[in-house]
Amino acid sequence: MRRRDFLKQGAILPAASAVLGAGQATAPEKKERTSAPLNGNFIDAHVHVWTDDFQKYPLPPGHKPGEMHPPRFLPEDILRPARPSGVNRIVLIQMSYYRFDNSYMLDVIRLRPQVFRGIAIVDWRGKDPDAKMRELARHGVRGFRIYPNGAPPASWLDGEGFEKMFRCGAEEHLAICPLINPDALPAVGRQCEKFPETPVIIDHLARIGADGSITRSDINALCALSRHPQVKVKVSAFYALGAKKPPHLDLVPLIRRVYAAFGAHRLMWASDCPFQLVSETYEDSISLVRDRLDFLSPGDKEWMLRRTAEEFFFR
User: Fold this and answer.
1) Cis amide bond preceding 70, omega within 30
2) Which CATH class is domain 3-314?
3) 209 near 255, Cβ under 8 Å?
C-alpha cells in the first residue's frame, strides 16, 4: 500500500530492513531552523527505518523495491535532523515492507541500545504471538503494533491471538500499540476493561483529522480511554492530520483536549519520520509541542518530549 493509503485506511502489514553501513539518505533534506538546546535529551517516540540491502534483509513475497519511498532510511538519516532539535533517542516502529520479520530493527537496537528501542509486529493470527512477544522483549522491544487490517471496527480485536497479546502485555509490561482510526477506539476500550493492567499506546492521536475533519465525537471517543490508567497517546504525525500544513496550529484545540483528559505524563511526542520529512522539516513537528502550545508548563513539555517515553521505553 502507498503511504497515503496507509494513513487513510489504517491497514498495513509489518516490516523492517536496512543496511547498517554508511550511506547517504535518499529522503529530501531541508534546511532546519531550531531554538532547542543541543542537550535537550528529547525522545522521538515514532520513527521507521529500512534499507535497500535486499540480500541481507530480503523483501517478503508480494513486496517490491519500488514500493519503498524513500528507497532507504537508515539510523543516521533520522539522527541527522533530530540532534539539532535536541532529540538524541529514538523509538523505532517496525516498517511494513518486511511483514513480521523484525530483523533489521533488532540489529539497529543491538548496535546502539542506548539510543534505540523498538515496537515490533508479530503475527496475531499465529499459534503463539505471546511467545514471540516475550522473545522480542529480550532484544530491546517494548511494544507491539496492531491494526484492524480490514476487520470491522466493532469486532477487530476479537480472537484468541489478541487475547494472548493483551494478556502477555499485562504480565510482561509490554505495550500494545494500536494504529487505528477513531471508529476502532471503542473496541480498544472494551479490551482495556478485560485487561486493565496492559499498557496501551495509541498512535498518532488515533488519526483524528486524517480525513481533514476534526470532530467532537472523535475527540470524545479518544478522551474516553483516559479512564483506563494504562492508556497513553502519541501526539504525533501532524503532517497527516487536519490541514496538514505547518505550523499545525489547527491541531492545538485537539491536543489541548487530549492533554486535559490524559495529562502530560501519559502523552508522548513523535515525528513519524521519514514521512514527516517528505514535505516538511523535523522542526515543523517538534516545535509545535516545544514552542507553540502555550497551555503547557515547562514540566508538561518535559514529560511529552522526554519523560513519558523515557520511563516506558528506556528505563
Assistant:
1) yes
2) alpha beta
3) no
